[in-house]
Design a protein that fits this description.
The chain has 371 residues and is an alpha/beta fold. Helix content is 47%, strand content 9%. Strands 1-7-8-4-3-2 form a six-stranded parallel beta sheet, sandwiched between helices. A two-stranded antiparallel ribbon has the order 5-6. Helix 5 crosses helix 12. It is globular, with a radius of gyration of 22 Å. The protein binds thiamine diphosphate (TPP) and magnesium ion. The site of thiamine diphosphate has 15 residues, from strand 3 and strand 5. Its EC number is 1.2.4.1. Its cofactor is thiamine diphosphate. This is Pyruvate dehydrogenase E1 component subunit alpha. It holds the Pfam family E1_dh.
Length: 371
């Protein structure tokens, strides 16, 4: 008897094709700044569009200045942001003041636009505790250094918002590397199960320090990981400010309407090194790849769009640049003048009640610092 050819139970090819079909990259502006998806155009006034551009230009300047201040030894920890402006600034632009932001270490710009005074961002970079003392009316946590931990915290913050019956959301950011962490899955799963008003953003800048995203996961997209948590997921062109804005705005609407969280993957690129601590990108990525991504630049693309609409020009651009430079100069001066951090400041900031085993040290330092 001839052996029967067994039909596979899982049609793997078909399953993967279906997923690929569902997770196409969402785009509104192409690389030339032309609208390719009129139906998805967000409802933004000319003034709002200009404000979004102004913030992206400002943030690019802040990045350039922060890098040079770091090289002069005037800043401490710094993770460059150039290339990621659409992903960071346009996603934040879709929020409201009452929303709660849980950033990663690269997401200081979102904190600044959420109300963190610039001099405090500089103090944070220097490891000064005052950099983490946010204004009372600013709903945010400090930048998370533990990869992925903010995803679990966001599920909790969002559940809190829901239990209080507030009409706001908790938004968090991690990277492509972060999407491999246990905390990532726990966070999206929990928020999904409790329909918590959360927005989970993965800024896929293609590298986790030197590890390329291809080595990070067998999944074709990070967005599709939403399926396992039973929540909506979308992959967005992260160099397209309008697409990022529209995706986050829609996710926010769903969240405040009680429809639960969304996972948003933004495809982006960091032009600079991972941090200023000394990694050399030429050792792990090709120049051609960098050139390819620079052609997709979020500022160039959005500028072209605004210029074609007749609402942006060199004068507007220069105004934004000058404003940024002036603010940075003032803020770094204020950071320099701020009282130096004392050991007892650090201890007081860490503990509400000093643990008994630190009491003696605390007294020694109080004595030393009084001289
Ligand atoms: C739990 C944990 N593991 C490792 C590190 C060290 N680390 C710092 S940044 C980083 C890479 C993260 O890459 P990605 O999530 O893609 O974010 P990106 O820096 O690209 O924005 C790693 C492994 C850490 N901070 N926390
Ligand atoms: Mg990354």
């Amino acid at each position: 008897m001839a052996a029967k050819t067994k039909k596979a139970i899982v049609d793997v090819k078909k399953q993967f094709e279906k997923i690929a079909e569902q997770f196409q990259t969402f785009q509104i502006l192409n690389e030339e700044g032309e609208v390719v998806n009129e139906a998805a155009m967000p409802d933004l006034t000319d003034d709002q569009l200009k404000e979004l551009m102004r913030r992206m230009v400002y943030t690019r300047i802040l990045d350039q200045r922060s890098i040079s201040l770091n090289r002069q030894g005037r800043l401490g920890f710094y993770a460059p942001t150039a290339g990621q402006e659409a992903s960071q600034i346009a996603s934040h632009f879709a929020l409201e003041k009452e929303d709660f932001v849980l950033p990663g270490y690269r997401d200081v710009p979102q904190l600044i636009w959420h109300g963190l005074p610039l001099y405090q961002a500089f103090l944070f970079s220097r490891g000064h505790f005052h950099g983490n003392q946010f204004p009372e009316d600013m709903n945010a946590l400090s930048p998370q250094i533990i990869i992925g931990a903010q995803y679990v915290q966001t599920a909790g913050v969002a559940l809190g918002i829901k239990k209080r019956g507030e009409k706001s959301v908790a938004i968090t950011y991690t990277g492509d590397g972060g999407a491999s962490q246990g905390d990532f899955y726990e966070g999206i799963n929990f928020a999904g199960a409790f329909k918590a008003p959360a927005i989970f953003i993965v800024q896929n800048n293609r590298f986790a320090i030197s590890t390329p995203v291809e080595k990070q996961s067998a999944a074709r997209t990070i967005a599709q990981k939403a399926v396992a948590a039973g929540i909506p997921g979308i992959q967005v062109d992260g160099m397209d400010a309008l697409a990022v804005y529209a995706a986050v705005r829609e996710a926010r609407e769903r969240a405040v309407n009680g429809e639960g969280p969304t996972l948003i993957e933004t495809l982006t690129f960091r032009y600079g090194p991972h941090t200023m601590a000394g990694d050399d990108p030429t050792r792990y990525r090709a120049k051609e790849e960098e050139n390819e991504w620079e052609k997709k630049d979020p500022l160039v693309r959005f500028r072209k769009f605004l210029e074609a609409k007749g609402i942006w020009n060199e004068e507007e651009e220069n105004k934004a640049i000058e404003q940024a430079k002036e603010d940075i100069k003032e803020a770094i001066k204020k950071a320099d003048e701020y009282p130096k951090q004392k050991v007892t400041d650090l201890m007081n900031n860490m503990y509400e009640t000093m643990p008994y085993n630190l009491q003696e040290q605390y007294e020694i330092y109080t004595e030393k610092e009084s001289k």
